[in-house]
Design a protein that fits this description.
Helix content of chain A: 25-40%
Distance between the termini of chain B: 25 Å
Distance between the termini of chain A: 87 Å
Largest interface: A-B, 52 and 47 residues
Radius of gyration of chain B: 12 Å
CATH superfamily of chain B: STAS domain
CATH superfamily of the largest domain in chain A: Histidine kinase-like ATPase, C-terminal domain
CATH class of chain B: Alpha Beta
Strand content of chain B: 15-25%
Number of domains of chain B: 1
CATH topology of chain B: Transcription Regulator spoIIAA
Largest sheet of chain B: 3 strands, parallel
Number of strands of chain B: 5
Structural class of chain B: alpha/beta
Order of helices and strands of chain B: EEHEEHEH
Helix content of chain B: 40-55%
Strand order of the largest sheet of chain B: 1-3-5
Strand content of chain A: 15-25%
Strand order of the largest sheet of chain A: 1-5-2-4-3-6
Shape of chain A: globular
Oligomer: heterodimer
CATH architecture of the largest domain in chain A: 2-Layer Sandwich
Radius of gyration of chain A: 30 Å
Number of helices of chain A: 21
């Protein structure tokens, strides 16, 4: 009986692609110089399986190519060939090439024989040569003045965004940037193709496009600048206030400016000035789907089963209830409570993804950048199975890239400058759960923060007072201050304009916080603490008139009673409280939200001191109520966006409580002053 | 007809692969059909390459047609202002 092996081809492709991933991970983990036999064996086995499978299915090119790789790996395994940086790089390129070959075979397209031949030649050369030297170093430095001036919002912004060719090499993606921009208002996008070369001449990772963007809405300059914070060194950027009289230009108006092949597209381009829907675009991007393990779904189904049992137990109790059965009722209610909590926890878990989905991009990034900088770096990852809410995961990618890049660029010293430490620097990435939060640590064993330089900078900028003693924590804290970028202060390596203040803001946006510990000459450790989920928040309930508002517990510094003599009235109607040596602006919540029957005498109410974006304000409320976890309902989805309000929740008594957005309130307050 | 089946993840790491795929598709000098139904994530690098293909095909007077562009693809193209230039406006896909 003949067996139709065609049915197994698909499996072969899937297994081979997995094999390639294993090879890539193995190669990246392979320390040059030292032959880690087990690691080489793993890579060898993966290559061997691909070779065997491709032979079975008659994919001769794949078999031949893998054979050369396999021979090279075999020689490494037997110690006849040194594990050099050059060999590892060639093998990594071969993995990429093999991946493309498999794709080509799968899709019945032609294999790029020139590339295969070239790589095969290089591998053969390596085989003939024993013990090649490794490592090429070309220091990279990039600068980019950013032409932007703070201007008051005037109906919107006209943004000129001209990426440098290498913008996308650094992990940046204009799609993501524009998506964030679209969330700030109505976005009109006009691309400029004038730099686009012919397809054959394109470098796939270079950015040739440029854009002119019109953002209409009430977004502030700061918010717009922040969207570009990650790329401001990698592009020419201009942000100007939109003049309201601008009439949308007619189709193809800029044709004269754009010579060459750009023209042929211009006719059609005019119609592309459509608006990105403020909510729609984000929803389409994130709202898609989530892959959930069957075990998680089963766990929820089990819990629902238990809930049903409890419910029938309660129903039975309800029939002919008498007080003798009160204990049974309590028992059943306890069980219901337990079931509900378990169910909540498990449903939340469905939204959780392992942090490995973010961590997995770092091995290649560290490998490529360290190669470019001529540094020797080993990346150690742990806790990658720790699960975090999907939304949080999406938001921490950029900050983490920035932190790892900082460690590579400014933390780890070049070989020769590491003194008695091992010449290979170590960067660690670790994630773990602790007391209801997720912690992510990015550490390095590099030079650490330069305390003296930071202190000098702090004194120069007036953030520190001369003659006073400051703890290490207070000094380190300065790197999170806008304008005091570590890059400029702490090393001479040309830095990126984006500072740690942006990283902190991004982390705070998802309700987390960030801390740094550093020892000169021994390295730094940055710890990010994130909430388990964004759907539930620890809140302080406060009453204002008839209404109840929720203040996120994380943003509360303290609550105080006000003495009238401590209040100053500034010009206009701004009130400030002299409080612990500073002047704290007072925000009367009842005025802001138009609440009726509220306490208006400052001495009779309470002031909740809150902090966001490094600034403190006092929120004047009638009274504090309890603290509780509240589940956040989107106000935007059900009503519309309201400044100063982050969302709403349904309280225990069925009323709706608004959850305050502290950063938003501070902005509203500043605008009113 | 040369058919290009887009991968689910059109990210920067696969840009080189896509580039080669597009160049190969053009070699046949036949009309090109791009199947975008599997696409879940798109990087600007991928869209820029697809734009390069459309321009190149236009210069060579070859027809480029889209088949089932996914919502993720449509959204990314719209964000970059490339819907019309890529010829995605005519696909009538309103998914």
């Amino acid at each position: 009986m003949a067996i139709d092996i065609g049915q197994f081809v698909q499996t072969f492709f899937e297994e081979s692609l997995e094999g390639l991933d294993i090879m890539e991970a193995g190669l990246l983990a392979l320390p040059p110089g030292a032959a880690d036999l087990e690691q080489i064996n793993t890579i060898f086995r993966a290559a061997h399986s691909i070779k065997g499978g491709s032979g079975t299915f008659g994919f001769k090119e794949v078999t031949d190519f893998t054979h050369v790789m396999e021979t090279l790996l075999d020689k490494m395994r037997e110690g006849q060939l040194a594990v050099t940086g050059e060999a590892v790089n060639s093998l990594l390129e071969s993995v990429d090439c093999l991946r493309e070959m498999l794709m080509a075979v799968r899709q019945n397209t032609d294999i790029d024989n020139a590339r295969v031949g070239d790589l095969q030649g290089r591998l053969t050369q390596l085989l003939e040569r024993k013990g090649a030297a490794s490592g090429t170093a070309d220091a990279t430095g990039h600068r980019g003045p950013v032409a932007s001036q703070p201007l008051p919002p005037a109906g919107g912004w006209l943004i000129g965004f001209r990426p440098h060719l290498d913008l996308m090499h650094r992990g940046n993606d204009p799609v993501r940037i524009f998506r964030e921009l679209a969330a700030l208002g109505d976005l009109t996008v006009r691309p400029d193709f004038s730099r686009l070369p012919r397809l054959a001449e394109m470098q796939p990772e270079d950015c040739y496009l440029a854009w002119e963007l019109e953002l209409r809405g009430d977004a502030g300059h700061e918010a717009v600048t922040e969207v570009f914070a990650w790329v401001e060194d990698d592009c020419d950027l201009s942000i100007e206030a939109l003049v309201e009289t601008i009439v949308p230009p007619a189709t193809g108006k800029t044709a004269a400016e754009e010579p060459g092949q750009g023209e042929l597209l211009l006719e059609r381009r005019g119609g592309d000035r459509r608006k990105s829907d403020r909510r729609g675009s984000g929803a389409a991007a994130d709202g898609g789907s989530i892959r959930v393990g069957i075990d998680k779904v089963d766990a929820v189904i089990n819990l629902v089963g238990e809930l049903v049992t409890t419910q029938s137990m309660l129903s039975a109790l309800g029939v002919d209830f008498d007080m003798d059965r009160i204990d049974k009722l309590h028992e059943a209610l306890d069980q219901l409570d337990r079931n509900t909590r378990d169910l909540q926890e498990h449903v939340m878990r469905i939204r959780m993804l392992p942090v490995s989905s973010v961590f997995s991009r770092f091995p290649r990034m560290v490998h490529d950048i360290s190669e470019k900088l001529g540094k020797r770096v080993e990346l150690q990852i742990s806790g990658e199975q720790t699960e975090i809410d999907k939304t949080v995961i999406e938001k921490i990618g950029d900050p983490l890239i920035h932190l790892v890049r900082n460690s590579l660029d400014h933390g780890i010293e070049p070989p020769g400058e590491r003194g008695t430490k091992p010449q290979t620097g170590i960067i660690t990435l670790n994630a773990y759960h602790k007391s209801g939060s997720i912690f992510i640590e990015v550490g390095d064993d590099g030079r650490g923060l330069d305390r003296d330089a930071l202190r000098r900078k702090g004194l120069d900028s007036g953030l520190l007072r001369p003659g006073e003693e400051y703890s290490d924590e207070q000094i380190h804290e300065l790197i999170f201050h806008p304008g005091l970028s570590t890059a400029k202060q702490i090393s001479d390596v040309s830095g990126r304009g984006v500072g740690m203040d942006v990283v902190r803001r991004n982390i705070q946006d998802v309700g987390g916080n960030i801390q740094i510990a550093s020892q000169p000459g021994r390295g730094s450790m940055i710890t990010i603490c994130l909430p388990l989920t964004l759907a539930i928040l620890d809140g302080q309930l406060v009453s204002v008139g008839q209404d109840c508002y929720i203040i996120p517990l994380l943003s509360i510094v303290e609550s105080v009673q006000i003495r009238a003599e401590a209040i100053n009235r500034m010009a206009g109607k701004c009130e400030v409280l002299r409080f612990r040596g500073q002047h704290l602006p007072i925000l009367r919540l009842y005025e802001l939200f138009g609440a009726e029957d509220a306490v208006t005498d400052l001495e009779k109410g309470l002031l909740v001191v809150v902090e966001a974006d490094g600034r403190q304000v006092g929120l004047f409320v009638d009274d504090l109520q309890g603290q509780q976890q509240v589940s956040i309902k989107s106000l935007e989805k059900n009503f519309r966006r309201v400044s100063g309000v982050a969302g709403a929740t349904i309280l225990g008594d069925g009323r709706v409580g608004l959850i305050l957005d502290i950063s938003g309130l501070i902005r509203v307050n500043n605008a009113a002053m | 007809m040369a058919i290009i089946e887009c991968q689910p993840e059109l990210d920067i790491a696969t840009a080189s692969t896509l580039h080669r795929q597009l160049l190969l598709a053009l070699q046949s000098q036949a009309p090109v059909e791009i199947d975008g139904q599997a696409v879940r994530r798109v990087h600007a690098a991928a869209l820029q390459l697809l734009l390069g293909l459309v321009v190149e095909a236009h210069l060579r007077k070859l027809l480029v047609r889209w088949r089932n562009p996914s919502p993720a693809l449509m959204e990314a193209a719209q964000l970059l202002g490339l819907t019309d230039s890529l010829g995605l406006a005519e696909t009538g896909n309103d998914a």
